[in-house]
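Is zinc ion placement plausible here? Inputs below.
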Amino acid sequence: MNDEYWQAIVLCDASYDGKFYYGVMTTGIYCRPSCKSRVPTRANVKVFRNAEQAIEESFRPCKRCKPDGGRLPSEEWVAQIASEIEKRYAEPVTLTSLAEQFHGSPYHLQRTFKRIVGVSPTDYLIRTRIARAKEMLSETDMPVMDVAFAVGIANLSHFSTRFLAQVGMTPTHYRKKLKGAIADDNGQSTEEES
Ligand SMILES: [Zn+2]
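Reply from A.M.:
I modeled the complex. Tokens:
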């Protein structure tokens, strides 16, 4: 930690709030620079650039200065990012653009998202695109090429490869199979009714 930050902690300088957070290793608590709690021993202080970083290292927010107040818990943050992906799946969404929009580093976003959702933001985007593609293939007669484009994958062979990897069959095969299944279902229900 540099002298500037240490001075801010000692003087409880509120102008540094949001610029950094500090944890006290002996208590496992993290604070805003302006916190009025007792000045810790310098050697025990650890500086964080954001609250998430402190939380990731298992520090708990101070009850007095509430350094997590106004900041979203990771679950909420990730849920917002996931719904943004679901809304903008057809656009060229990147990890960097999401990180910028949601005020976090790409690295932190990647890690936190994966920890909570189980897949990376990029994989989540692909899953969302393929899920929408499946809907379009079953509910519309749009050519496969148009479906690919509509879900944000302009390259048809790229789309087919992704689709195959996730669904286990090509888009065309998927559509044929589905139409076949619907026809079968209709046949059966007619039989049952009669
Ligand atoms: Zn505090």
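Short version: Residues 31, 35, 37, 62, 64-65 surround zinc ion (CB under 6 Å).
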